[in-house]
Structures are given as structure tokens and as C-alpha cells.
Amino acid sequence: MTAPGTRIDVSVVIAAYNAMPYFTRCAESVLAQSIGPGRMEMIVVDDGSTDGTGPEADRLAAARPELVRVFHQANSGGPASPRNAGIGHARGRYLYFLDADDRLGPQALERLVALADEQRSDVVLGKIVGENGRGAPSSMFTGDQPVADLYTSRVYWTLAAAKLYRRELVQRHGLRFDETMATGEDQPFTAMAYLRARRISVLASYDCVYVLRRDDGGNTTNLVKAAAPRVRILTRMMPLVGRHTTPGPGRDHLMHRHVSVELPRALMLIERERDREAQLKMLSELTDLVRDWHTEALAGKLRAIVRLQYELLRAGDGERLLTVLEYAAAQRRRTPKPPGLASPLMPSEATVERGRVHAGYPFFRDTEADVPDSVFDITGEIPRGATITEVRLNGVATRLKGPAEELRWRGGPTAPGRAGAPEITGTTWAPGRGLALRITGRAPDAPDGAMILVQATDRSGDRRAVRARPEGADRAFSVTLPLDGGDWTLHTRREDAGRISEAPVPGRPGLGPVRRLRGFRPWYGRVLADGGGLRVRVGPVRLRRGVRRRVPW
User: Fold this and answer.
1) How many C-beta neighbours within 10 Å does residue 96 have?
2) Theoretical Cys-Cys bridge with 541: which of 154, 263, 351, 522, CB 3.0 to 4.6 Å?
3) 412 occurs within a structural domain
4) Pick from 191, 219, 247: which residue ends a domain?
5) Measured distance between the N- and C-terminal CA atoms of the chain, rounded to whole angstroms
């Protein structure tokens, strides 16, 4: 047992069910932590295992009684109940939830606790690494964030339990895992911890936890193949976010995670159901949900194929939606490396008019379906090397024999190379509050009716774009492009008569770092690189670490 008066910094809670031989590796990674035995404890809750996991946990407790406590219970059917039991037994200042088939990096707990203490953080995300082919979230781990803003950063895109939580926060708000959910039970817990936290931090500079794809396919997420549990995640999480946030960009930012990640997954599983009545019933349930929390800004964030599904769902058109889902499944089966459910899905046909590319998805310009052209717009989604077999360019069908070289990334039909692209004459930080770039230029050979678009693309895939019309004898233009937190790459594009020419925005001398107030909080903007295109980073100033380190004035 731990000596009286010893301060336990962190309790590692492991919910274990039939996890051998992975459990041994997991437990050993905890026992070997550099934080040392006097500052931690390992709580194992055996959820009715039948494969030797329970005896192995008892063996470890007998060998290291000062570190390991084991509790046995009847099988509950999921990790929520044993995790909740572990919360009740924990004595540490912080909690860390570790799946029994994953493992910690040797210094993970020491570094996580140090960051939490330094920043007085209630939740700390440690970098997640996938093993044996398992994917891991990465967009929130592009750099350390001593203070991560929930409503502008990507932290909400990981709702798994494997994080450091201040136990006082968990106890004060009565946070527990939802034992009624077959999968995604960690999402309400983590979301509420985020929403109630005084401060959230991200440790991206150290590989904290390694998540494993088991060879036996025993990962809990992989075991749930039915649609109903995925629908349940959405019906639980979207109202939770709605109840605990106010309308506006912040709420839309959090909702976007659910409609771009969970909604496509649920719809895919609904399409695989063979019972038509059950399909339509679940779609009706989701229709009520998206109508309750819909905003145009939220819908506008979605990729075109998901946006189409979302709009048909919102219209209550279950039959047409199922047709689109069947089409999307068939398109992905024909692709050697299928894209993710929320990734761009290239159609076999497209229509190009006035510089915009519209996917030939089902019900494009179907008068009965009455879905706006904007829903089908894939102009900014076309990846390099995409193949579209037929393009209607300004009403004329054109067969393409190879990759759609005229439909390039960030653009639609382009001239070969960058001929005709706008010329940039100035790039400065716009005055005033907030962070925005003012970009001036000219397009000397642009005809009347041409438009100039300046677009910034974040690593996460988010985009900001502003259009301007060249005017005057020198065909000059000026745009001001507001930027949220992130790493942004900037391009310009000229659009006229179905022709688009693009080029990166070059770096400009004198575009140094800048600091501005956003609300009552200082934010910074600085150039990351200008080779091949201007890249800038925007984010909140880390006051504790010092402005000079982040922004060299």
C-alpha cells in the first residue's frame, strides 16, 4: 500500500476485459513510468474476463502492492462501468484512462502532470500514436499548446478517454461514462470535461500513448458494426453540445466534428442495413436532430458529398438519401484507395460553369429534388490526379481520356501551368482587431466579369476565401482575408468564362509577426514559410511561455 501522507499525483484507470496478452504489455508500460512509484497508482477493474486477464492483474498486484490495486466485477458489456468504478477507487490528483490493449510512452505521465501543474490545466491531451496499422487522431497534435482554445483549435476532434483529467473537475461536476452506450461512451465524458475545464493543454512533442489495432480484431470500436449505436452517439452528443454552448461560430465548430465525422459513419451503416423500415426510421430520427441544430454556417463547412446527404436528411427525403448513400458506396468500391467518409468523393461526371465545378452526384439539377447547385460544388475539393470521365464545360460535354488535368487542386478547369494567374503586389496584416491579411494585386489581362479569389487552406482542411473583381485600367484588386487559429497556406485564383488560373501567394518583405487582441485575449500571426507559397500561423499568445519565444519581434 502507499505510505500514509504520500501524495498520489495520478491514478491510471485500466478497464480490462479479455485483453490478454496485450494487458501485460499495457500494465508494464504503466509500472515503468518515469514519474516513479511514489507519485502514481494503477487501478485495474476486471470486467468479468474469462481469458486470464483477471489472474494476471492479481499477479501484478501481489508483486507490486504499493502500486497496483485490482477490482473484479461481473461483465457489464463495455468499458463505461469499469471506468466509473475506477473513478470511485482513485486517489490521485489526476486521472488517466488507459485501454488494456494500449500502452504509455515511458515519460508520458511525468510530462503530462508537469504540464497540467505548470498551466493549472484541467484536461491535458497527450500525443496519440497508432500501432499495427491503427489510425490515430493527428490534427490537434501539430504543436504543443499550453493553452488550447476549445472553440478554435482541433482538440474537440479527439473525444477518446485517453487523456489526463483533474480529478477534482470530474468529482465537482459528477462526470461519469455513459453506461447505456454500446460505443462512443467516452464522448459525453470527454466533451463535458472540455466544456467545464478552466484550461485545456496539448502535449504534442512527446509520444504519450500508443493505440494498437489488435490482430484478433478485438478493439471495442471494431466490434460495433450496427447502425443504431452510431445513431445513438449523434442523438446524445449534438443535444449535449447544443445545451452547453451558445449559438454562433463556437457551437458550429464543435457541431462540425459530429456532422463531418459521426454523421457520415452512421449513414454508411444505415445504408448497409437490409431492413428498409429500420433504415427510414433511423433516418427520420436523424432528420429531427439536424433540423434542431442546423445553421447555414455548419452546413457550409461540409464536403460536397456529405453536404448533399445532410441536406436530403434535413429535408426528410429518406428515399433519395438512400439512393445517394448507395451511389457513394459504389463509387468508393471502384476506387483503389477509397477516401474517408468525409473526404472529397470524385464523381464520374462534372459540370463546369462560370468557373465553378459541380459534381454529377445523384439529383444534380433534379427539379423534383430541388437541391441547390451550391450543395454540389466541388471546386475546392478536387485532389491531384483525380479522374472525371466526363465534363460538361459551359454546357458542352467533353470526354477526358486520362486524369482530369484541367480540374486541378484548388481550382476547377485551369490553364496549363500558372498562365493568367493574378499578380500579387502587396501582402500586409490588416489593421484593426483580430487577425486578417490584406492582399493587393492586379490581373492585367483579365476580361470584364472575371473574379479573383484569394483562398487560405488550413492543415485540417478548413478553408477561408474572399472574392474581388479587378477594376480600373490596371485591373487592380484588394481583399481582406480574416483567419482563425491554424497554419494557413495561401493561393490566388482567377476565374473567367469557365477558365481558372491559380498560383500561390508569394511571401512579401516586411510581413513580420503581429499581435492583436481578439476579445480580451492576445493572438499572434507570423510567417512560417514563403517558399512555393505563403504560409502563416495564427493562434493565441502563450502568456506563460512568453511572447518572445513564440513571436520574435
Assistant:
1) 28
2) 522
3) no
4) 219
5) 53
CA distances from 529 to 86, 462, 487, 533, 534 (A): 47, 19, 10, 8, 6
Q: Is the predicted pLDDT of residue 378 greater than 80, yes or no?
A: yes
CB atoms within 10 A of CB 277: 8
If asked whether residues 132 and 236 sit together in one domain, one would say no
Q: Number of C-alpha atoms within 13 angstroms, CB side, residue 23?
A: 26
Position of cell 486541378? 408
The amino acid occupying position 365 is R
Q: Are 550 and 541 in contact (CB under 8 A)?
A: yes
Would residue 371 count as lying in a domain?
A: yes
Gyration radius from the chain CA atoms: 26
Say which residues have a Cβ less than 8 Å from residue 369's Cβ, sequence separation at least 6: 312, 317, 320, 363
- Is there a domain that residue 405 lies in? no
Residue with cell 504489455: 25
Q: Examine the domain organization and report whether 45 and 181 are in the same domain.
A: yes
Does 204 share its domain with 178? yes
Nearest to 256 by CA among 322, 340, 157: 157
Asked if the structure places residue 193 within a domain, the reply is yes
Angle 16-19-25 from CA coordinates, rounded to 5° = 95
The domain that holds 127 is classified in CATH as 3.90.550.10
State pLDDT tens for residues 132-180: 888 888 889 989 999 999 999 999 999 999 999 999 999 999 999 999 9
The three-point CA angle 448-449-455 to 5° equals 120
| Spatial distance between the Cα atoms of 103 and 211, rounded to a whole number of angstroms | 7
- SS3 percent helix, strand, coil of the chain, rounded to 5, is 30, 25, 40
Whether residues 271 and 379 fall in one domain: yes
Which residues touch 382 (CB under 8 Å, ≥6 apart)? Answer: 344, 346, 357, 404, 407, 408, 409, 411, 412
Question: At which of 219, 238, 268 does a domain end?
Answer: 219
Rounded CA-CA distance 408/385 in Å is 8
pLDDT tier, 413 (very low <50, low <70, confident <90, very high otherwise)? very low
User: Residue 266 belongs to what domain range?
Assistant: 223-399
Secondary structure (3-state) at 278: helix
CA angle 198, 199, 203 (to 5 degrees): 160
Of residues 33 and 485, the one with the higher pLDDT is 33
Tell me how many domains the chain contains.
Answer: 3
